[in-house]
Amino acid sequence: MTAYILRRLWQMLPTMLGVVVLVFLLFNWVGGDPAYILAGKMSNPEQIANIRKQLGIDESYWVQMWIFIKQIVTADFGASWSTGETISNVLTTRLGPSLTVLIPLTILETLLAIGLALGVAYVRGSLTDRMVMIACTVGMSISILVYIIVFQYWLAYKLGLFPVQGWGDSFAENLFHYALLPILIALAVGIAPSLRLFRTFFLDEINQDYVRTGRAKGLSEPRILWVHVLRNAAIPIVTHVMANLPSLLIGAFLIERFFSIPGIGREVILAVERSDFPVIKAITVYVAAATMLFNLLADLMYKAIDPRVQLK
Amino acid sequence: MNSPMETTSPGLWALAWRRLRTDRIAMVALAVVALFLLTLLLSATGIVARNWDAEIGVNYAPPTFMGAQSAEERGVQGMHAAEEAVPDNPRDPLADVIRKLRAERGAGAATDAAPVEYYGVVDPLAREIAEIRAELAKGSAATAVERRATLPLGADKWGHDIIQKTIKGSETSIVVGLTAALLATLLGTLFGALAGYYGKWVDDFFNWFYSVFTSVPYLLLILAVAAVLQQKGVLTIVLILGLTGWTGVFRLIRAEYIKHKGREYVMAADAIGASDLRKMFIHIFPNISHVPLVQMSILTVAFIKSEVILSFLGFGVPVGMASWGSMLNEAQNELILGKWWQLAAASAAMAVLVTAFSLFTDALRDALDPKLK
Amino acid sequence: MENNTLLGVRDLRVSFRLDKHDKHADFEAVKGISFDIPENSTVALVGESGSGKSVTSLSILGLLPPENASVLPGSQILYGGRNLLDLSSGEMRELRGKEISMIFQEPMSSLNPVFTVGYQIAEVLRLHLGLAPKQAQARVLELLNEVGIPDPAAKSAAYPFQLSGGQQQRVMIAMAIACNPKLLIADEPTTALDVTIQKQILELMAALQDKHRMSVLFITHDLAVVGEIADHVVVMRDGEIREKGSTDEVFRNPRDVYTRALLRCRPPLEKRPRRLAVIEDFMDPGKLPEEAQERARGVSGDEPIILDVRNLGKSFFSREGLFGSREFKAVQGVSFKLPRGKTLGVVGESGSGKTTVGLTLMRLHEATAGEALFEGHDILAMPKAEFKPYKRRIQIIFQNPYASLNPRFTVGQILSEPLLIHGIGGSDAERTRMVHELLARVGLPAASYHKYPHEFSGGQRQRIAIARCLTMKPDILICDESVSALDVSVQAQVLNLLQDLQDEFGLSYIFISHDLAVVKYMSDQVMVMHEGEVVEFADSDDIYLRPQHPYTQKLLSAIPKADDRIRRVTA
């Protein structure tokens, strides 16, 4: 087990290096000279040269790369170009609001999707099943933007059921007041694809031989679904949920932006709009690292669910 | 059971098509998609919606069935379009700076000028079209006085006809979706075939490449590229989507090649002395060709959605081009004023196309792979 | 010992919907069959693929897939005074696993992979007998002990993948007999198992049937197994019953020509006819097979050697620990000489490495040790380009005729491709002519040229695969379980074809199979493999008459005795 984790961490190094090179190439090579962006209106050549020196981009690419790696290792990316706030501070203060929305959302969505998917898997092939599937397809075809714009306008602005936007200081206020509508909208958007996906997981399992054995034993159909099928389908479900967590952090950016939630996703959009490269670079590298760690975590959870998995 | 019939002999594609034809939902979906593609063709060749940006209605002219509005109701009537013409991104505190920088570097010219070359291909009729436009512009200036009070589906804040704008927007969004999906599928298929077939260090290399690209969440990658590439345009967004979106196809194709490489028919091809290329593309590829086809269809939908979001945020198509995303961006503010028709038109067009496309994709997958339920 | 009828099938008809949009394409898999299962006896339902035997067994317990299968009105399955087809799903569940239970062909996939075997057995006990967890666990241990699983306590906590195939089937049996059912339905329970394991499972089932005084409905394609275990036999073909009666009666005096043909298609062990009887010989009453003429086998020692294999080895490596790797030796120290025009039989159970030997000689796997001299040249060591001209002289026919032909090629393309690759035949017209000649040679109609593989039956596909090899006029043909996936009646036809081709072209065969009777019939010499090594090598008659190695003896004794019984009663 320890050997396995150590080896997986060791194997992450080349991937991490790849991400670093990718980000570096993107921002230091493709992106051209950031000094012009940073200098803004006061763009006389001396100042630009000065900025270039400060940023270290008058050095060779190898030196710049070394600086970048040093930044990653020491977790010190300096300050944001647009606000001057230190990057580490940006990240730590934005994570909380993001998680306030994401954790309840993930739990609700997963449980709801599992329940509904088992329901339609139970009546597979029936009219209900087909109607639900078509409803899902239609639901998935409407842009998330439309959901947000319409729900925000109608439920919050017109009917006043929820605050239109905003964020407070206390956790309870945020969760039960400001985060409600965002969670509701994200749920409406996310449930259809999850439901469809989980249904295929269940149907794959329902066609397995062991289900026939269960019936031959005299088990009831609900018991076969909730005990035998669910335990097997949990394997792909866990992978799916775990693998999606880090990208949800970014994926929620539209919600965060519309509802002015000071989370990571909104920070990314702001940074992109302001060409605030250090913020984007830091977030990209850390989210990539988080994704890899979550994949490892998903594999470890595999082991707990599926006795056949051998970690080697 | 399998006794050979006297007559010959439909191939597997013909059989799949036969299955597909009996599926009524799939046929309706296919008809809808075909209709969209036909409209796209007509608008791309300039037969319809050529003058979508002519200001033929009053500002915010409502749909005909709602009746005309009084001037006060229109509210913002006095606002002139020209003032608003180049809102790069109104929220951007650095917008001024950026615009100025661009102007200095000369890059801005390409962005702000009316984009004649929509797709990065040279339009052979560009000059003629420009002339026609110029003439029409004169004409519209003359008729500007007699703008219509209502239009079939209303007008936007400049008085553009929503129907034509939606048609033009559909063209942009679908072309972006299709070409980006084609690019991503080609890359994914090629990489996947090489990695899966050759295995060993080739596989290690592509796997490394794959894990690098999948470690960074897809949207973050797109946004990062968008942040770096200041040059906007259809080609840019196709490249962004295509170059970042190949990973899913790669994973599936690689798995298929690994599976098929061990199949007996490939070993039999090996035994008769077939070369690697022959095994890869003449033997294996026809047996897995449904995978890239279905994936491309799925990716088209995904990329249309991504394009809409990117254009909405102002990272997508350049200003002055209609797309579903830029329409939604405008519609967001209009909704507060109660002008819902642009939102409705863009959302409905997108929802109908994407629904039809997705339903057709599902049917296609079932028809090509009868094992799947 | 027999008295009342336990279960009666009356006019059972089952139809399958092949195309969900087309009612007229329905296929009737079972066409109105009737038979009885007496109390305390074993009834065997025998038939080849497509006979409807499995469908019949599934319909008794109501386990047919409801999406596309339907039992037609008028059918009856009578049990305890009730028609099982009329019961509600709740009443049916009461019966399943308690009074009527079932085991299946693939024990591995039939057990839920993520629950321990103890849990899965206890589930039946808790459900039908209402046992408390503790009592159930105690009973599980008894049951595991009864079906002959060593160390029940440890195995009860094991997951299915941790058990061998034979043990998994024993677990399935334990689960099936847990509530002392009156009827056990066994659907091809030994088909997926090696012959030595098959023998143990058959013995176990016979003992349990006797001890629990239950009835067994045994579904199989293998008449030899029937003779071993059944009191009554029902022979099915194409959804109809061809013959039924007591096993002795049917074996001694088969009334139906199909039954007669089935009994004679298998290669006999004690003699070697020049040609095997095939089903047409019997169906056509005017004609009777010339079985009398025997073929002599064996080598004299002075035939020219075409292939000399020395010390062949193949290892696979798997990763282990932080940096380590583990070696798995699939094949080790295999040496043999193949005389021109003769057949070398390679026999062994699953995991014996026999298939790996064939694949390494074709260089479909790279060998990790040893050499193979083909006319004095080591074909394992030479560069790929140099190997190419040798490649066409060694060809291979695989086991699964459904997988070995590219489904996107027409038969014409499949057969022309090797000609193109090796530049055989001057023009397209010439090649087309050669392909048509070959089609005729392997007994396929000329119209096959433009058809796709999916339009052919298993036996026909294997003929196509044989024709593909013949295009290159090879010297050596490796047959890797080439007839194992075929029905016995088709098997005999393909074996006859292979024999004719050897006589005509002087081919040398390496004939790999798990089926001792087939290997004995086809081979001059036999090599017995066990866990990657050769344990015995001798002339084929010697191996069968005087086996030296204990493993060979064990293999031979595991062949179902009914082979003798058939000979005895039909001779």
What topology does this entry show?
The complex is a heterotrimer of chains A (312), B (373) and C (571).
Chain A: H1 2-30, H2 34-39, H3 45-55, H4 61-74, H5 87-122, H6 127-141, H7 144-158, H8 171-178, H9 180-206, H10 209-217, H11 221-251, H12 253-258, H13 264-273, H14 277-305
Chain B: H1 12-21, H2 24-44, H3 71-74, H4 81-84, H5 95-105, H6 108-112, H7 126-143, H8 162-198, H9 200-215, H10 218-228, H11 234-244, H12 247-261, H13 264-271, H14 276-288, H15 290-313, H16 324-336, H17 341-368
Chain C: E1 5-16, E2 27-38, E3 42-46, H1 53-60, E4 69-71, E5 76-79, E6 82-83, H2 89-95, E7 100-103, H3 107-110, H4 117-129, H5 133-146, H6 152-156, H7 165-177, E8 183-187, H8 195-212, E9 215-220, H9 223-229, E10 232-237, E11 240-246, H10 247-252, H11 257-265, H12 279-283, E12 305-319, E13 325-339, E14 343-347, H13 354-361, E15 369-374, E16 377-378, H14 384-391, E17 394-397, H15 411-421, H16 428-441, H17 458-470, E18 476-480, H18 488-505, E19 508-513, H19 516-522, E20 525-530, E21 533-539, H20 540-545, H21 550-558, H22 562-570
Parallel strand pairs in C: 3-9, 3-10, 7-8, 8-9, 14-19, 14-20, 17-18, 18-19
Antiparallel strand pairs in C: 1-2, 1-4, 1-5, 5-6, 10-11, 12-13, 12-15, 15-16, 20-21
Helix pairs in contact in C: 4-5, 4-7, 5-7, 7-8, 8-21, 9-22, 15-17, 16-17, 17-18
Structural descriptors:
heterotrimer; B: MetI-like fold; disordered N terminus; C: alpha/beta; six-stranded mixed β-sheet; 22 helices; globular
Structural account:
The complex is a heterotrimer of chains A (312), B (373) and C (571). With 312 residues, chain A is mostly helical. Chain A has helices spanning 2-30, 34-39, 45-55, 61-74, 87-122, 127-141, 144-158, 171-178, 180-206, 209-217, 221-251, 253-258, 264-273, 277-305. In chain A, 39% of the residues are buried. The mean pLDDT of chain A is 83. With 373 residues, chain B is mainly alpha-helical. Chain B has two domains: 9-52 and 160-372, MetI-like (MetI-like fold, Orthogonal Bundle), CATH 1.10.3720.10; 67-146, no CATH class. Chain B has helices spanning 12-21, 24-44, 71-74, 81-84, 95-105, 108-112, 126-143, 162-198, 200-215, 218-228, 234-244, 247-261, 264-271, 276-288, 290-313, 324-336, 341-368. The longest helix of chain B has 37 residues, at 162-198. In chain C, the strands form four sheets. Chain C has a six-stranded mixed beta sheet with strand order 7-8-9-3-10-11, with helices on both faces. In chain C, 37% of the residues lie in helices and 24% in strands. Chain C contains 22 helices and 21 strands. Chains in contact: A-B, A-C, B-C.
